[in-house]
User: Which sequence fits this backbone?
């Protein structure tokens, strides 16, 4: 497999502008002749669909939920970055680029990250134009705050519901195009296969989740914007329907999958309790602007927090990282929380929690100021934990939150399969080994509003694509295969439920491929996952019918893919014998227990290629070339 | 509060796809932790049903953190349950007592067709937004974000409306199955902002027209919508919608 990143040459600052100029254009009258399928309606998919329809393309847009407004981008709390420098603290496009590439531990593609930083200001302008009510100062201008990994206040926010407001902005633009007829919306659909004709992606096959019917849809190009795959861990902060299936189908149709082991652990999540738990809830990183993180100095100190005097508390982030303090990046904060708990200094019933304490901020600013900034987050915490965080410190612990790995794409956001594009959280390109706060929303909107609408034109203008519709044999073959697979699932009639097996898989993933990994553990995972997959196909119980609304079948189909994908994730982790970002390989650490990168051997994106059923996947490497930044050991001290 | 375990009797609406009639079935929810959410309680019951070979109860859900608006059932006669300002996924079992009988039904309204069991089709809300619930803006040509100042107070007021999650509880709670709270939240969000003003009249007329044609009823000041809204959206928004609609009808050429 050839991995050509198609990154244009020349100085970093001018690459994107020159590239846009050189791209072949599709003239407005011809745009209406092209049909494009977009899978997903989150920030990336929704904005891409709306913008392409606005340009004149005919777009078919698909989502799992009942309406595009529920895509999981809606759950993002804290904010979105831009280099506006409104607070006058010296921010610039280069600064935003530099923090992002450093935050990703130099495992992202430089040119993509620079373009992301360049697009950021236009994103804010466009979102405001579409009615996103970002927080304002009393004078009427925008307010900003800071996030982990940055020393400037560059984050735009709408209370603790920034993702919701950005998504509603996108949903408005998308709804307008649906109303005008430029977008055909298909909700409650699971994309189960990508159809390839003459080497190019030409459509999808999906299951209508209401009727159970298998449907085929053709187009001139296919865009995947399906979000992250972190539900492979079962307990995560992702929506319950987020899944890997469409990207996994793409992988099997020739789209390489890059860096699957790059999983972000978020430091401020509400703690785990009970084996019936279905979901984890995040507390926005923005809370670390005002909350101070601490544990008792002494191991096993189980006094209530108000009984522990100041001099017996360890504000470990402020102590170890004086220049960033509580605002160190997510991987650093997570690892240090784990270390504190491993030392027996964790708090709460399970000992797997640290305090996030607002008492000083409340004393300084008053409860009303804190309520105005974080009210809905405090309320959410109170509902789940039944404790008032205005009175007692929150108890938090790291959890699986976001994945930086995903489908490999070039500078055009095209995968290794011609005509198949991948955007936002579903691709691999912009976050490296660790994602800084407030950068996922930025990437989704950059890809969808400001990159794909240009690059897809470059593809469509230079191809001579034959007329293909759903009567083509490739669609028929795919439908037949899917029907067989669904029938097989329906006829196992085993003893274990889908969730039961998913929880077991999630346990292996967290245990062997979670906050810390080592060779022995990963080898164990590589034995346990295939065995569990075997059991799934012998012993799962899927009730109901495949020709009906059947949520058990939906979950079973997604789990079948996770049971294959989990193995690739563990294999990727085993191969990467270095620590970088949130991926902490125990064998590779500094004397101070910080992540130790190995630039000599691992400064590459690992792009896995499908080799056929039962065969080991092939590892391809895209060397990461840094023209503008010098690779250094990350330090936040 | 300390974790306890309780047992409940559930009376659940079951309705198969394509069949006209549904009915209430009785199930036992055993050994439920009071720390579990309402949806997690249903998960536990569904695991039990699956093992017994009974098809699990279908219900909508996704984010399970109170923001996607996908969950929602009528619990003991209240949309999202009796607790104020709470989505169903954020309702915890500590609000129930051991031995309680709990009635669980889908949101009911002419404009919300039952898909299966507790799952309803709320696409009528999308149709209302598609009719005009947006600001027309092209990607790429927007002026600098600080070009239009919005005072802190106005922004907060717009945000109060913008917080609507589109769950449909307001419709389910209203004796008229009116969507006025939903529509008015969007109208307020966009009409209060300077960038939303140019289309305000056109928007109000189009959204109200779409709301009527979808089969929603009108507001008769019952205030049940406000009482059931998980995001505490206030009916003062409906007053703003009425003003916007009236002035659009009387003063505007945007018919």
Assistant:
């Amino acid at each position: 497999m050839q991995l050509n990143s198609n990154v244009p040459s020349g100085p970093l600052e001018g690459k994107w502008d020159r590239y846009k100029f050189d791209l072949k254009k599709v003239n407005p009258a011809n745009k209406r002749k092209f049909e494009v399928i977009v899978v997903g309606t989150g920030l990336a998919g929704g904005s891409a669909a709306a913008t392409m329809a606005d340009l004149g393309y005919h777009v078919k847009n698909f989502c799992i939920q009942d309406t595009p407004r529920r895509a999981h981008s809606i759950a993002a709390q804290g904010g979105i970055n831009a280099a506006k420098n409104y607070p006058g603290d010296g921010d610039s496009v280069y600064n935003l680029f530099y923090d992002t590439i450093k935050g990703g531990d130099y495992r992202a593609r430089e040119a993509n990250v620079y373009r992301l930083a360049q697009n950021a200001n236009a994103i804010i302008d466009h979102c405001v134009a579409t009615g996103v009510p970002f927080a304002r100062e009393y004078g009427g201008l925008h307010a900003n705050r800071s996030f982990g990994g940055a020393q400037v206040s560059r984050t735009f926010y709408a209370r603790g519901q920034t993702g919701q407001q950005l998504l509603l902005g996108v949903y408005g633009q998308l709804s307008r195009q649906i109303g005008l007829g430029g977008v055909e919306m298909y909700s409650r659909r699971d994309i189960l296969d990508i159809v390839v004709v003459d080497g190019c992606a030409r459509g999808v096959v999906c299951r209508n989740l209401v009727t159970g019917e298998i449907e085929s849809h053709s187009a001139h190009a296919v865009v995947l914007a399906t979000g992250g795959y972190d539900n492979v861990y079962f307990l995560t902060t992702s929506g319950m329907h987020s899944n890997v299936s469409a990207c996994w189908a793409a992988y099997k149709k020739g789209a390489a999958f890059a860096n699957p082991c790059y999983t972000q652990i978020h430091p401020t999540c509400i703690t785990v309790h009970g084996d019936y738990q279905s979901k984890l809830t995040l507390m926005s990183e923005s809370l670390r602007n005002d909350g101070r993180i601490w544990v008792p100095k002494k191991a096993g100190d189980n006094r209530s927090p108000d009984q522990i005097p100041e001099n017996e508390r360890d504000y470990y982030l402020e102590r170890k990282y004086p220049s960033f303090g509580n605002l160190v990046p997510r991987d650093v904060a997570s690892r240090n929380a784990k270390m504190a708990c491993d030392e027996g200094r964790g708090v709460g019933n399970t000992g797997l929690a640290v305090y996030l304490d607002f008492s000083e901020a409340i004393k300084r600013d008053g409860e009303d100021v804190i309520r105005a900034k974080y009210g809905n987050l405090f309320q959410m915490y109170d509902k789940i934990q039944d404790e008032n965080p205005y009175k007692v410190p929150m108890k938090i612990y790291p959890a699986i939150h976001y994945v930086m790995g995903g489908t490999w794409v070039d500078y055009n956001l095209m995968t290794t399969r011609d005509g198949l594009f991948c955007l936002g959280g579903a691709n691999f390109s912009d976050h490296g080994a660790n994602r800084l706060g407030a950068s996922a929303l930025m990437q989704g909107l950059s890809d969808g509003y400001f990159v794909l609408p240009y690059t897809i034109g470059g593809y469509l203008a230079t191809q001579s694509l034959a007329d293909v519709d759903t009567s083509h044999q490739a669609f028929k073959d795919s439908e037949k295969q899917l029907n067989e697979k669904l029938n097989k699932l329906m006829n196992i009639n085993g003893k274990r439920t889908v969730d039961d097996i998913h929880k077991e898989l999630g346990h292996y993933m967290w245990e062997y491929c979670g906050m810390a990994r080592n060779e022995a553990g990963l080898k164990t995972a590589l034995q346990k996952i295939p065995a569990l997959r075997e059991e799934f196909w012998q012993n799962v119980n899927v009730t109901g019918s495949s020709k009906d609304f059947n949520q058990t079948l939906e979950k079973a189909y997604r789990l079948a893919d996770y049971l294959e994908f989990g193995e690739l994730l563990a294999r990727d982790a085993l191969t990467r014998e270095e620590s970088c970002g949130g991926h902490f390989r125990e064998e590779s650490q500094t004397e101070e227990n910080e992540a130790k990168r190995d630039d000599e051997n691992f400064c590459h994106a690992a792009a896995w290629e499908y080799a056929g059923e039962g065969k080991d996947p092939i590892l391809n490497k895209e060397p990461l070339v840094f023209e503008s930044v010098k690779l250094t050991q990350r330090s936040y001290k | 509060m300390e974790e306890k375990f309780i047992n409940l009797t559930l009376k659940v609406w079951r309705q198969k796809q394509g069949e006209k009639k549904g009915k209430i079935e009785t199930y036992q929810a055993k050994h439920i932790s009071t720390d579990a959410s309402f949806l997690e309680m249903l998960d536990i019951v569904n695991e039990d049903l699956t093992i017994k070979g009974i098809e699990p109860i279908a219900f909508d859900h996704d984010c399970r953190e109170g923001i996607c608006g996908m969950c929602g059932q009528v619990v003991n006669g209240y949309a999202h349950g009796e607790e104020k300002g709470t989505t169903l996924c954020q309702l915890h079992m500590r609000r129930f007592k051991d031995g309680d009988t709990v009635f669980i039904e889908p949101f009911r309204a002419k404009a919300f067709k039952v898909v299966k069991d507790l799952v309803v089709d709320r696409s009528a809300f999308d149709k209302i937004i598609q009719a005009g619930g947006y600001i027309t803006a092209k990607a790429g040509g927007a002026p600098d974000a600080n070009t239009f100042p919005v005072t802190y107070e106005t922004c907060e007021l717009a945000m109060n409306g913008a917080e609507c999650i589109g769950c449909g509880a307001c419709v389910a709670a209203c004796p008229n199955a009116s969507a006025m709270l939903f529509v008015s939240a969007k109208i307020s969000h966009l009409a209060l902002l300077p960038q939303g003003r140019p289309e305000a009249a056109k928007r109000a007329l189009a959204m109200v027209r779409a709301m009527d044609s979808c089969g929603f009823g009108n507001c008769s000041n019952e205030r049940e919508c406000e009482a059931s809204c998980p995001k505490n959206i206030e009916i003062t928004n409906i007053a703003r919608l009425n003003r916007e609609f009236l002035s659009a009808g009387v003063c505007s050429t945007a018919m």
